[in-house]
Amino acid sequence: MKILKIFYLLPLLLLTSCDEDFFEQIVEVDVPEHTPTLAVSCYLNAADTVINVFVTSTVGILVNEDPPEVTDAEVRLLKDGNLLYEIPYFGNSVYQLNNITPLGDENAVYTLEVSAPNFESITAKQRMPQSVPISNAEFEAEGTITEDGDRVNKVTIEWTDPGGVENYYIFGMEAEIQFDPSDEPFRNYEPLGSTDPLAEDSGNYIYMKDATFDGNNYKLIAYNYGDYEQFESVKFHVFIQTITEDRYLYEISLEAYENSKDNPFAEPAILYSNIENGSGLFSLTANSLFTIEL
Amino acid sequence: MKAKLILLCLLLPLLGWTQDKFTLSGYIEDGASGEKLISANIYDYVSGKGAVTNTYGFYSLTLPKDSVVLSISYIGYETQTFRLYLDQDITFNVKMNSDIQLATVEVSATKIDRIEEETQMSRVTIPVEQIKKVPALLGEVDILKTLQLLPGVQSGGEGQNGLYVRGGSPDQNLILLDGVPVYNVSHLLGFFSVFNADAIKNVTLTKGGFPARFGGRLSSVLEINMKEGNMQEFHGEGSIGLITSKLTLEGPINKGKTSFIISGRRTYVDLIARPLIKSELEEGEELDLKLNFYDLNMKVNHRFNDKHRLYASAYLGQDVFGIDSRETYSDGDYFELDNGTDWGNITGALRWNYMINNKLFANTTLTYSRYRFDFIAGIEDKYGENLDKISAKYISGITDYAAKIDFDYIPNPNHYVRFGASVTHHTYNPGAFQFKLGSIDVNVDTVLGSGKARSLEYALYLEDDMQLGRLKANVGVHASGFSVLGDESKFYYSVQPRLGLRYLLPNDLALKGSFSTMAQFINLLTNESLSLPTDLWVPSTERIKPQTSWQAAIGVAKTLFDQYEFSIEAYYKEMKNVISYREGVDFLGVENDWQDKVTQGDGESYGVELFFQKKQGRTTGWIGYTLAWNNRQFDELNDGNPFPFKYDRRHDISVVVSHQFNKTISMSGAWVYGTGNAITLPLYRYNSPIVASPISGDYYTDNIETVGERNSFRMDAYHRLDLNIEFYKKKRRYERWWVIGAYNVYNRKNPYFIYSGRNDNGDRVFKQASLFPVIPSVSWRFKF
Question: How far is CA B452 from CA B145, B325, B379, B491, B642, in A?
Fold first, then answer.
């Protein structure tokens, strides 16, 4: 429906582009002074052997410079209140620790703490979600249709939702492709979408919650645009990533944020954060995989 | 037995049962055209009693057996006086003569339509002739934009015709064209309204103190009545302007019995642009631009006799916007692209007036209203032996069928009883998307899972406008029900008490008060900034509760020196279950269930309105001032904290003046000032990784801007001056006017929206976008 938007906005654009001097001018707005806080992002999977924590500072909206790196922070990960790792600065705003033992999907509470000179310390807590096995997954070339009527590949994912708890999921797919029998196969991320009314579509992956099928089997029908006939062999690695409620709320807000960005007629959206005293997100996830051989 | 006697005593005044009283009744109409006159005054000097004609020009006045000296008066007409001896019921129709000299020189009138005599408060009637004098954008007379100049009525964005009445939003206005709701009142994204002033007889806006006969919306009732057509002679009027031309024809079909009026309007931007576009095309290229709107008003009325009259009226309006292009190559291959949107209303009404007796008048109405939006896109691509055809169609809208019956019962001069009932069948089509590709034909409903939704809306009302000495009261009750049909059936009902009071203090100063509750069962999904054709009307559902409100108002009103009218009113309004889009929702998207896009909350508005109007003389106009507060609270917005509504406008001033210099030249001006709109701005930003692949953890970095409290900033104040000068000349066969005007005379850069960006030096700044600079206009009007 993008063409619709162009139709409506065209007259306005024509009007606002007639004479830049009249239609656009710089105005003074009395914005309250902003006290910088830490902006921290950490996406950690139960199977990861590397921890990356992205740490920067917020800046006032009219500050010309990019948000500065914070290189002298102390970054700690705690498990059930006990220090698990201290994570050193690596570069490019990233604090990194390699070759760790994967956290696993043990039902533990992890706390991320970051402190830095001249900033208020931040904390964020998450309970590791349990992975949920995929009972079946299937791929059918040109087996379904998108909302826009495009004939596309159908990807079906089935699983049993654990009952009695709220579960949140992300669904994605990688293709393991071999051009020629002599070539090494390579992996490529294949974006998924869905017309399922319960599913939210980020453009790259699908996310949803189990509010309407708690404790039951569910079959998600997704689609994908790829053309795989040209390859010698293709395998699909379909995964369900169980995520926390905070991550789900973040994904919802991210979609709203992206929709409202640069759109003067949309109500502005705030990106969800679970960082106390700061901005950003601490997210824990656990994967389960299913391989489809074509 | 005692109880029956008491009941009989109570009912006697209503029944009008007396041995020595008789009833004068009939119609008041324009002597030249036969048009019925609404709210004409009938006053008996002997008894001091009076009556007012209803929407169909009918009046009834029951008086003691005696001589009566009747004064019949109406704005713009010579007051007539009659002496009668009333010793039986009399049907007395009166033909009023227009005050020709006044009509050409001045807007209004000899009649003193005294505001202090009415029970009703918070209601304004503007003569269409006065609306035509108010300067307008591109010279296009706009009823809705003139109403925005009244206190308590605010405009939205620059040039928009949405009405924000006492803190409400445009979807909370019941806009009735000849009694039929019009669902989308905008042409060209809301810059023009669908109402062609040449076809309109009367415009009345009620902002509060709603009488029981009205219901279904929270904030206002706008009654627009079309002209009926001249019963005696053939006449016409029209205009040629910068963007539109209009022509209205009216006359008798059967003189004195049947008349018609037909009025059309069309824009012609595309007609001008088409040859210019063609001259720029290269060989093999074809391009056709469609960019216009048109509307057509039609009405026929037939008078069977003094008791029966039938009206049939219709409105048809359409906006068309599209491009058809074709590129043909030398080998015969071609690529053809046809895109177009069109949207518009069709309304129709069939009304039967029946004067059952000289005290009881009935009006039965059957109505039809349809708003429909279509988007059609098609591609045809021929290459070699292949021919690909793709087409997509999106349809949305709402269709109503309604029947209602209204009774006016006037037992005596101290009571005016109205009662009636209505039923409306709504069919909503909140978005059906059809796609065709070659042999593939898919029909996916993008909004409501089951496609069309249907509901029934019922209403019953009873009200009595009564006079008890110096106290007048309008007491009533409106009961309504709403039945959602289909699988997810649901029934809502509402009983709404209404009360309006007027007490006449010494020196004819009227003290007025009102209380009304309202319920609204259908909702408009609309953006607060623009009126878009994709705006969707949707029903209340299990999840989306009906909107409700209550409003109390108190004020004083007085006519000064027979020429000036002054009123001051204070009001307080609370609204429940008002609708807003959730944060960040893309209002143009149609991909999700509409119920997921909206959230419900509460609203509160209060303020004081001051209105000073000069209705007659060479100089006419008004000054309006509103001091208002308007807040919203939604659990899901702004962390649940209350925030100012986008159009919370602390001060709103309008000054409208028309002056007739002589018989040929008149000048009009309108100046408006409003506190800047409330906006939300970003306060700080940071870099954040955004996950691209949840498996590998690949990400990209985005600069995230975070906004502060919702609507916590204000744009600069809005102010603007518009001017018009009219040159009139009476020719042998017709009259003509040249109208030269300018919108935004002093070229004020009024803010439209504000966004963050960078200046030429690369520094981060806030930028303001403005829309309309000074815009001159010229039009030529004629009348014969």
Answer: 34, 33, 28, 18, 35
Q: How confident is the model at residue B107 (pLDDT cuts 50, 70, 90)?
A: very low
Quick one: B107 and B135 in the same domain? Answer: no
Tokens of B710: 């919702």
Of the candidates B321, B752, B764, the beta carbon closest to that of A7 is on B321
Same domain, residue pair B52 and B95: yes
pLDDT at A184 > cutoff 90: no
Same domain, B54 and B168: no
- Cα dist. B140→B145, B235, B244, B771 in Å? 10, 22, 8, 17
Q: Rounded CA gap, B568 and B570, in Å?
A: 7
Over residues B153-165, mean pLDDT: 86
Same domain, B589 and B643: yes
State pLDDT tens for residues A34-65.
Answer: 999 999 999 999 999 999 999 999 999 999 98
How sure is the predictor about B584, in pLDDT bands with cuts at 50, 70 and 90? low
Q: Report the CATH number at residue B88.
A: 2.60.40.1120
Structurally, chain B folds into a number of domains equal to 2
Question: Would residue B586 count as lying in a domain?
Answer: yes
Chain A interface disruption, residue of B191, B394, B443, B588, most A CBs within 10 A? B588
- The pLDDT of residue B37 is 86
Q: Is residue B694 part of a domain?
A: no
Q: What's residue B146's pLDDT? A: 92
**Residues 343-382 (B) with a CB less than 8 A from some CB of A:** 375, 377
The letter for the amino acid at B637 is: L
Whole-number percent of chain B with pLDDT over 90: 46
Neighbour count for residue B241 (Cβ, 10 Å): 21
Main-chain phi, psi angles of B254, to 5 degrees: -135, 105
- DSSP 8-state assignment for residue A184: P
Q: Does one domain contain both B79 and B141?
A: no
B37 and B131, same domain (yes or no): no
Reported for B324-330, long-range contacts at CB under 8 A and 24+ positions apart, including other chains, are B324/B286, B324/B287, B324/B288, B324/B290, B325/B285, B325/B286, B325/B287, B325/B288, B326/B285, B326/B286, B326/B287, B327/B284, B327/B285, B327/B286, B328/B284, B328/B286, B329/B284, B330/B284
Confidence of residue B113 (pLDDT cuts 50, 70, 90): low
CA distance B714 to chain A (A): 9
B248 with B337, same domain? yes
φ and ψ at residue A246, rounded to 5 degrees: -60, -40
Domains of chain A: 38-128 (2.60.40.10), 134-245+287-293 (2.60.40)
Residues B398 and B360 in one domain: yes
Chain Cα centroid distance, residue B678:
24
Q: Which of B189, B375, B696 sits opposite A4 (nearest CB)?
A: B375
Q: How far is A118 from chain B (nearest CA, A)?
A: 17
Q: Residue B267: which residues within 8 A CB-CB, separation 6 or more?
A: B187, B188, B243, B244, B291, B292, B293, B294
The whole-angstrom separation of Cα B360 and Cα B353 is 11
